[in-house]
Amino acid sequence: MKLQPGVGYTFDSSSSGFTLDTTDPFPGVGASAQHPFQVINIVLDSGAWTYQVVPGTMNNEVAQIEEDSVWVYTNRTAGGMPDWPVSVLNFTATKSYIYLRAGVDQTNDAFPGQTDDEDEWPRIISSGTILTDTDDYGYILLAEATEGSGPVCSVVQYVTGSLWADRIKLGTLTAKYYYART
After folding, report:
1. Strand partners, 167
2. Which positions ≥6 away from 132 have C-beta within 8 Å?
3. What are the residue ranges spanned by the domains of the chain?
């Protein structure tokens, strides 16, 4: 019987017998694998919880996040390397909700907004309270952070990919927002 290496396995043979190795020859990065809009690197820094978000898009527009009171793209780089911005979690009691917020451009009725220096652009925000959609803004909950005792903060992730979004407004009803993961 002759064994040959094939797709998905390797083969080793000696006078003592043979071995068939079916472990992944190209393993991923395991638990550290990241996805768009993943909340990462939660750190207690000078009494405030800071966090980062893996870059993601809404309708092919890269989301922004607030860093030091300035809105910056989540996919920022420096010297060709990722330099993702750091933002602060806002808590009420022990909860913080991380949302992707986008608004409708009032001049041309586009959703999400088309100008990256306006509030209607897709932006990641942290809130100590649960936010609800309005006629002007839609909110999708990306993750929820819970502060534990001591310097511990856990995260439950809800969105695991970039998004396509649509806004439908009928008469006097509050606009409805629909999301699909890419």
Report:
1. 177
2. 139
3. 35-181
